[in-house]
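Sorry to interrupt, but I need a hand with the structure work. Could you write out one complete protein record for me, on any chain you like? Could you add the entry underneath, on a fresh line?
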Amino acid sequence: VMQCSASVDVLFLLDGSYSIGKGSFERSKLFTSKLCDALDVHPDRVRVGMVQFSSTPHLEFPLDSYLTKQEVKERIKRIVFRGGSTETGQALKYILRKGFPGGRNSSVPEVLVIISDGRSQGSTATPAMQVKERHITVFAVGIKFPRWEELHVLASEPAEQHVLFAGDADDAANGLYSTLTGSVCSTTAPGCKVESHPCERRTLETVKELAGNYVCWKGLKQPNAVHASLCPFYRWKRVLIKHPSRCFRTVCPDPCDSQPCQNGGTCVAEGLEKYHCLCPVGYGGDIRCAPKLSLECGVDLLFLMDSSAGVTLEGFLRYKAFLKRFLQAVMGQDSPMNVGVAQYNNNVKIPIEVGQHKDAFSLMKSIDDLTFSGGGTLTGRALHYIAQHGFRSIPVFADVQEDLPRVVVLLTDSKSQDPVAEAAKYARDQHLFLIGVGNSFMRSELTKVTGNPKQTIVYSDPQDLFNRIPELQRKICNVGNPEGCQAQSLDLAFALDASAGLGLENFLQLRSFVRSSCLHFSINRDVTQIALVIYGSRAHTVFALDTHTSSSAVLQAIDQVPFLGDSASAGRALLHIYGDVMTVQKGARPGVNKVVVVLTNGGGLEDAAAPAQQLRDNGILVFVAVVGNAQRDELLRVAGSPNYLVHMSSYEDLQYYQNLIIERICEEAKSPVNLCKPNPCMNQGVCILGPGSYRCECHGWEGPHCESRVLRGDSPRSSVLPLHSQAQQSSSGLQHSSRASRHTKRH
């Protein structure tokens, strides 16, 4: 972040001797690259050069060779360890004799950075003094376990500001910047200041230690006379010695110090002045994590919380936190406050009546006051009670009747001890919209309560519960709305398992599911295009994206789809869709979202994970709908996310899950589009994005999508395809693109 931007020549003197060793030499190179981050490398500002020394000095590159920081770093990576004795004095004499190679002849300040272990095999005091007498600023950086006394001799005064340790690269880079700021560099950024703090330098020294005494024989002056004596026994060992010192560092105020992120957001600094907030789900309405959802759709909303022993105190507190986070996210100052909360175990109580609180603060306080009850789990009884007593509408005027949808959100992680289906049906007959929220083990019971898996929300772990806040908001505000996404533009391909493992009867049910799903889409060139691929051991395109332009034609073609009856390979089907269906040649439109729906019994998915990831990497969503027993881990590898996987126990369940699948597909149709994914350019053309457009860079081909081979004598061209006008296409299967452009403008 902080860089020295003055005109200065910086020469690194890198120790490449055997006492350093190849490993520490590589670490020295990495450290040197880190130091470059503190320098604004530019021909008119900081120039960098390097000399490696061991027995003799060797110029690696002069100061005028590389003019950008990236070039310098790339060159440093290529430097090779030379080895030899540590002749630091000879290296300093080389600098005295040659000057700074490629430098600006002392017209700008000169800085010498010596990176060494300080274990020179010759005298360094005299040449070091002569270098400093030439007004060269010398930094001595210790590597490995250096001899600090020698480094202090090499460095400029005061030594505390010019002696650094490479073991902490970030700290040393800051120290280099801090010292240069006080001399050659521009002043520190506003609010930043140089501070000193105590630190320590460590080194390994070989010391002589008394190990004990042993019996030895000593002669006397008399002839032939000796006597026994005790003689000392010494040994040498290496010990770690710590030298107290002071370090100087530049300290700047963090833009996150003021805690600018609200509602539990995490602040991430971007330099000295900027930051961004990582916001919890449901927040992000502005840069400080303001609520971005709303309940301004207008409903009477009652949360029915399980407070029985089955949900446990931990689960109850988790649902309280979820409820508060949800309401904080969706309720602005002007949102209707028709919210209530009921609790149940063996009995039901309504501590917060619907519409009781008219401001968010008092509502949150009442939620805080809710207490855990324990006891049995009678969900059926609770639903029946809520249907009769949960909504007590009291109009302001006698002739004004409230007619808002009434929504009950059931929060439970505990199986009911009484039947729920009949009570739930009674509640729905009273025109209550039921939404169920619970862990994944509750899916079946929650579906019985809601009567529709689309109205059920399950989570896999506590954090995943909070990630479901936007989904719950959408379900609350979409109660009673018609299904489908008639107006969404989409390129949609179904991959239908037609293998023997599936069987003819089940194949016909999946085929019927594809047929009824197509009724949810407006099929034409400008809105939704649909392709169908069936697969066994090989994949076959029944019809491509641009084959049919009406719903009737698509439905008629689906009715003719044959059963194959051989082994299954979903991987081959996905590769076929990637290379031969979702392409410009076969009708795919740039600027339109693309979805592949795989319908299978789970067989033949072993080879599908990699092709599915390839599709996702190219901007194509893969949705997997599986009927029957299959390994969930394998299914998740193909789908990529639990959000794009529907696992059903029987083929009769297809009708119940159709709305959920269509909703997920329609959500994808609204997401942002990358015009270059998948690549619209044919024949190895390269797609290059521009502002609201793309162009194909062709090699040996020409045309908007590189579809025409360049004739001899011609030169390849690339055409810019604006988002609002994707040029008139050639006659080789590209006629749809100009029509698609009318849609992509709306995107």
Observations:
- DSSP finds 21 helices and 27 strands in the chain.
- Residues 241 and 734 are 76 Å apart (CA to CA).
